[in-house]
Amino acid sequence: MAEAKAWPPGRIKIADALRVLLETKDFGAITTSEIAKSAGVTEALIYKYFKGKRDLLYQLLSEYLEHYDVQVERDLKGIKGALNKLRKLIWSHINVYATDRVFAKILLLDVRSFSDYYTSETYKLVRKYTEILLEIIQEGIKNQEIRDDIPPVFLRQAILGSIENVCLTRVVFDQKISPDDLTEKLCEFVFKGIEHGASKN
Amino acid sequence: MAEAKAWPPGRIKIADALRVLLETKDFGAITTSEIAKSAGVTEALIYKYFKGKRDLLYQLLSEYLEHYDVQVERDLKGIKGALNKLRKLIWSHINVYATDRVFAKILLLDVRSFSDYYTSETYKLVRKYTEILLEIIQEGIKNQEIRDDIPPVFLRQAILGSIENVCLTRVVFDQKISPDDLTEKLCEFVFKGIEHGASKN
DNA sequence: CATGCTGGGTAAGGATTCCTAACCTGATCT
DNA sequence: AGATCAGGTTAGGAATCCTTACCCAGCATG
Question: Coiled-coil region(s) at which residues (chains A, B) (predicted)?
Answer without folding.
Answer: none
